[in-house]
Amino acid sequence: MSQTTNSILMIRPVAFRMNEQTAVNNYYQKVLNGLSKETVNAKAQQEFDTFVTKLRMVGVHVIVVDDTLNPNTPDSIFPNNWISFHESGDVVLYPMFAENRREERREDILDILEDNGFIINEIMDYTSAEADGFYLEGTGSLLLDRENEKAYCALSPRADEELFIEFCEDFEYSPVIFEAFQTVNGERKLIYHTNVMMCIGDTFAVICADCIDDKKERKMVLDSLKGDEKEIILITEDQVNSFAGNMLEVKGADERRYLVMSQSAHQSLTKKQIAQLEEHVTILSSSLDTIEACGGGSARCMMAELFLPRE
User: Fold this and answer.
1) Which of 190, 280, 282, 304 could bridge 9 with an S-S bond, Cβ 3.0-4.6 Å?
2) Please, what sign has the CA dihedral across residues 75, 207, 209, 239?
3) In a domain, 245, yes or no
């Protein structure tokens, strides 16, 4: 299986704002004082459009679907939490923590993908777990090393261990389970999504090992990555706060590999880290300041990778 794809799905926001339902355990969200909802959404749309243009300019195949005003889905810009697409032609639907995020799941998106020549064989639906209060938020919670058939998951209120193991059994991934923390007002709190503190590329991994407080767990995760011959590039908790963990490797024209991140993530990296990354990929960054502040997510969260077979 391939670790990277040339095709991604992105959802263009129509009513983007800070989602009060997700802010209870996403400590990266901020209230932007003095900005109307209309201004926040307009800024988010501008950031989104610039980002899509940059991706397309290097040859990434981006399918953009517009969000709808009804139902009210302020976080629709982050589709990777409710859906994932696999080389087998499987589509997975995930149970979501915030009630208003469950409304993001749209069947018409699957029709749009089929109209674009993608083949969907089966839909695996884990969403019934919501009724029992268990969640697993897509490739926010699951970090898939597709090539080595491993899945990494930092447990949190949005990543249930049993559900994660069920997913791994269904898709034949080996589970790598740990807890990751961030400091909030002097207290260590669970990080809400794994993809905030680590990113797995084809030949490298970016990770904030300092977020894994348990030394045994930290060693296990790093040993697992090293065992697959990934070059490990360590980032700090401050860099995680600038979304430096929230990156995604994609393929552009001529199979060229790009590591996609926000401008704030790029600016937080040291010269040494950038040099390490550039041994593997070309860095592509775009300003996502409004989206990061209000949404508490960044570049990686905005892209749902399309691994589906094509007609």
Assistant:
1) 304
2) negative
3) yes
Query: What's the total number of domains in the chain?
Result: 1
Question: How many other CB atoms sit within 10 Å of the CB of residue 254?
Answer: 7
Q: How far apart are CA 141 and CA 157, in angstroms?
A: 10
**DSSP structural state of residue 122:** E
Tell me the C-alpha to C-alpha distance, in Å, between residue 171 and each of 33, 88, 144, 197: 44, 10, 11, 24
Q: Is 59 helix (H, G, I), strand (E, B) or coil?
A: coil
pLDDT tens, position by position, 49-105:
999 999 999 999 999 999 888 887 878 899 999 999 999 999 999 999 988 889 999
Range of the domain at 271: 7-305
Residues with Cβ within 8 Å of 86's Cβ and at least 6 positions away in sequence, in order, are: 92, 171, 307, 308
Residue 310 covered by a domain: no
pLDDT digits (tens, 9 = 90+) for 174-226: 999 999 999 988 999 999 999 999 999 999 999 999 999 999 999 999 999 99
Asked if residue 2 belongs to a domain, the reply is: no
Cβ(302)–Cβ(246) below 8 Å: no
Position 1 in a domain:
no
